[in-house]
Amino acid sequence: xxxxxxxxxxxxxxxxxxxxxxxxxxxxxxxxxxxxxxxxxxxxxxxxxxxxxxxxxxxxxxxxxxxxxxxxxxxxxxxxxxxxxxxxxxxxxxxxxxxxxxxxxxxxxxxxxxxxxxxxxxxxxxxxxxxxxxxxxxxxxxxxxxxxxxxxxxxxxxxxxxxxxxxxxxxxxxxxxxxxxxxxxxxxxxxxxxxxxxxxxxxxxxxxxxxxxxxxxxxxxxxxxxxxxxxxxxxxxxxxxxxxxxxxxxxxxxxxxxxxxxxxxxxxxxxxxxxxxxxxxxxxxxxxxxxxxxxxxxxxxxxxxxxxxxxxxxxxxxxxxxxxxxxxxxxxxxxxxxxx
Length: 340
Hints:
alpha/beta; 8-stranded mixed β-sheet; two-stranded antiparallel ribbon; disordered N terminus
């Protein structure tokens, strides 16, 4: 379906961070062992002369006894890897710890251009380029060239990171499962304005964007419960996004949609009150079944789409007070479809 240019640009600007009942995972008393990795990657699918000229930072955490399955966690726009394990907040908000406690290894990455990853010219970045970089990181983790090797990989994305995840999985078919959070194929035109309005140039990083001070709750958490500590941490750890990432995220992730190319099982998780993608004229996130009906046509039968809705929260659902419900949904689905 073709979209007018104005609508396409408006939709691109929304991608800033850019229930099926599942069995809760059993927790582990012992802590995972974590290490920092700097993984050589490229923004091209096939690097020129084989040279991987960028670096993708990742925090690798492996549960006691190890694991054959790794979850690669890709954050959204204006977020970095700390989204999955926010510093200074309770374990309620640690997606990373929940994954490790369930017996899975995790690699929370910084998208190229954010966090501790390389920061090239913003004009070089797109969602497709990010997908290529994530692909190189996945291959490194499969082969063990950047640490221990893993037999199975689940690719997890949030918002813009979900668009990158869709492109990676649909292009390379190198993962055993896909978890999409904070992303559907319909933009919410009646409620997305505060999120769009939060963007501002990220000085002194020419060409990059971030959110204006004091806009995190309005942009990503409203109308969920307001928690000052959560918002302070979100503000303190906010990061960058390149405009080009949003454009082809919409073209490939929404307009085509590229998600039909995914051949691995897919779990889609949304906040019930997500103002970017849910509501009138957008996706129906009122229940897991209504969400599945809204989105099923955008995925192939091979995806065997499963859905989950987190009650009462907005866009950044890992920072919700009831985030453990999300964690249980993801780890339970992984137990059923991929395994340790």
